[in-house]
Amino acid sequence: MKTKFNKFAAAFAAALLSLSAFATDSGSGTMGVTASIADECSVGNTATLDFGQLTMLNNGAPSSAASNSVSGGTFDAICTSGTTTPKLKFSSANTSGSDFRLVGADGTTYIVYTLAESGGTAIAYDTPASFTGFSADGSTKSLAIKGSVASSEKSGKAKQAYSDTITITSTYGI
């Protein structure tokens, strides 16, 4: 009986040794992981530039020499941190090619207006340019803008509603 037990113990030990050969570490490796952040800019949350009722007449004298009409608004802009030279470009849906224009409800009468940064720096039509206070630091900037309608642009225009849509395009690296 002792011999059978020894043979059984030897067979069992051999089986355990052969199983441990299958349970060994089969190796390991590494895998690299990468990512990058793209140059991106975005504009949104725009507020309407509302000139309201345009004053057409000089109430103190019998003339149509009313003063300029001015309105202000804001919009948000953001660029990923480290983006080079963020620029903004403004265009009008009613342009004649180089200006901002309000179009009357009749579809044929226009009032030209100008845009500027809140500090007074003029905004050229459809031209990418730096905007004061706008930097690429990954945070949203609320930027102020103002529009102006010269008194000469209002003179002789018919009573009706006028409107325009400004498209603000953000660019970088230009």
TrEMBL record:
Keywords: Capsid protein, Signal, Virion
Spore coat protein U/FanG domain mapped to chain residues: 29-169
Signal peptide feature range: 1-23
InterPro entries: Spore_coat_component, Spore_coat_U/FanG
Name of the protein described by the UniProt record: Spore coat protein U domain-containing protein
Organism lineage: Bacteria, Pseudomonadati, Pseudomonadota, Betaproteobacteria, Burkholderiales
